[in-house]
Amino acid sequence: MPPRRLTKGIEEEVYTGTWQGEVVGLSHRVAAAFPGFTTEPDARNVEFTTDPYRDYEVLLSRLMTKRCQLRRYLREIGEFTLIPGSTIPLGNTREFHLSDPNNPYYVFIRDTYGTNVVTASHHVNVGVEDPDDLFRAYRVLRSEASMFLALTAASPFLGGETTGFHSSRWGLFPKTPRSVPFFARHDEFTSWVEARLADGTMYNPRHLWISARPNGPASPYNLNRLELRICERTSCPRLLLAVTAFLEARVWEVLEDADLDPLRRASSADLEAMADANEAAVARSSLDATVTDWSSGRTVVARDWILQRLAAQEPTAKDHGLTQYLGPIAETAEEGNQAQRWLELLGKGWTVERVVIDAVAEAAEIDKAVMGAECA
Q: CA 254 → CA 134, 250, 260, 262, distances in Å?
């Protein structure tokens, strides 16, 4: 009998540019050429998504098929490719390249936040239909979202310089609204969103930019999934699947243990402060950051917290056929994430430009190794 698994979908936001690491705005051309690809407010990154699947191999195939379709198109229109990382690593980071001047939401974002929102990431969605389960999963995963940032941090550069962050994206990104509760119930979430729309704090229901959120086809009313938004954009498909499996295993623990709930240990305000502090620490130091484990109240190094969580959920992962995908979690925690590996190269005398150009070529080789001639 096949293992029980939840549905998963992945959104990928990625920069387009040259093989020399210059980020170039092409999303409006990509979106016009292919269904399933969409613009972001700034034309320098493009988004594509998978449908939800239970099977990991199918999920990987669908994601990589779209990534390779994008690579082929970029080659057809010029010497363009995909730029790794989650912030603009080289070039002008102050000028906003508006992809659609006729879109009022895009104009609002440009005028309100500037280029601090011009980032790339992976959003991972896991299907949870029951409202009580969904909001409990939201509370747990928002409390632990910094783990996922620590694993995927990939933005130590901005405009050709180091920033002091391992995740410049999350260090600079304008989380909105500034204060978001750890909602106890669906109706509380609905009323809160309606109030934020009425007072103008939120432009629309999707203007909720936090590490994890309840989501669905008609938020805040019709919700059917948990969306983890904190992950940096990773070029490595194995790590992306591992992060997804790590997330799914934790959601299963929530579904199978009704007592697993941060609100049983702390108030919403205290949980919010703890999560914000953890995310800020991890944005700066990723796996080396000191964070607070909500379940015990103890401080711990992020890499140790990840390894402890990985070990604790091993029985659940095994029950749901997830173990085979989780290897990169321990590998990354022990050996370092992408940001740390890039910074190590700087320590060996490489320039930021050399690191970025090398990473562009490496990302192309990774995709080719996974998909063969389709991504060559």
A: 9, 6, 6, 11
